Amino acid sequence: MSKRILYFLTPGTHISAFDVTIAADAGFDLVIPFTEIRPDGVANIVQDAIFSRPPKRFNDTGIFIGGRDVHLATDMFQKAKNAMVGDFQVGVFADPNGAYTTSASVVALVEQTLKKQTGSGVNGRNVAVFGTGPVGLCAAALVSKLGASTKLCHLTADDDQRVAIGFCERYKTKVEWVSAETSEEKIDVLKDAEVVICAARAGIRILNRAELEHAKNLILAADTNAVPPSGIADIGPHFLNEEVSFSSVNFRAIGALAIGNLKYKTQFGLYEQIHKAKQPALFDFPEAYEFALSVLHNK
Question: Are 98 and 267 within 8 A, CB to CB?
């Protein structure tokens, strides 16, 4: 009997146990690791995979691109797409460090919550994303693509503006690079922000009450940090459109575990789509966002 095979490509020295477990639960019989793979090594692996089975068997073979570097993942995803030959194709799903499905989930929840509260989503709103790591970059690109005026707020002097802006430009999105290294700089950002997404390092408080008291226009805040303390003061991990109120500030909140729940469903569902889709599946983070939205709509 033939097996459903997922080839797991990573630039790192090992693959993620988390990703492997979800892939197995989603129906793959074999998950085969390819470690220390660079973009120039992707095409040979993909073409070995596509030519080993007839064209109509594309549902039985998948390529997953992991690792921790979204820049490399973008290059590897493009190399995988370009390696297809005619009708010989397989599904490709990129999710480095879970950043694609996490950013997709937080933005989908933000969009849904805003529409529930105000009747409209992020389009035309001022959105501040704190943290320029993988999740922050992807979230900033997504909200910008949806029409938001987006600030990508760096928290340390080591954050690389050129690389971050270059990533957003690859997806034809425009974001403003601003400093949020000091409390005063965070307050300046918060004064105009209607939506805040905190996607910084786990276990570090990024926005405290004293800073949030200046966020008079804030409608919604989302925090991806599940490790105490929360990245944003007063936001619990299970919050899902919960009200936060103190001083003269009142806003709704989404916590990390609520985001994580949708992230799991999105990753699981995209794995399933590789072996259920009517056409060879190609999933980057914009496609992950559309799938996350569909999960919310189908609840």
Answer: yes
